[in-house]
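Subgroup meeting minutes
Present: P.N., E.W., G.H.
Scribe: E.W.

1. P.N. recapped why we're keeping a running log of single-chain structure predictions: easier to compare across weeks, and new members can see raw inputs and outputs side by side.
2. G.H. added today's entry (130 aa).
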Amino acid sequence: MAKSAKKAKPKPKPDTTSNTKTETMTTQGLTANSLATAEAPHSQPVDVTFNFTSGVGQATAVLFRKGVLINMQSISKSGNVNFSEVQSGDVISISGVCAGKANVAINTPTTPVTPEQFNAGLIIAGYLVN
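Output recorded in log:
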């Protein structure tokens, strides 16, 4: 008895009758003026002062502009972190830990205002430069 041969099923043809729209996305070109770190006439140097008392501490200060990390610096004893091209609307974020108390001061108007004191433990805060 002979076996019957199986016929291969034909592959379905792509549907060419559908109404598909293609959207083109344009990307923003990078220029010297669009860079987040470009110097602006209203830029200013800003110091973030950390004063650790009654123990040791360590902290990191981060400068953001329009959500882009511009500069990040850490400190492991009392002193200053210096940012050079800070503009209104930038955000300074600080995080760290201290064994005693820590005082943080920023030498330009911010929201919330500084100086701010932190007790032993975590240091977490964010400041909007006015």
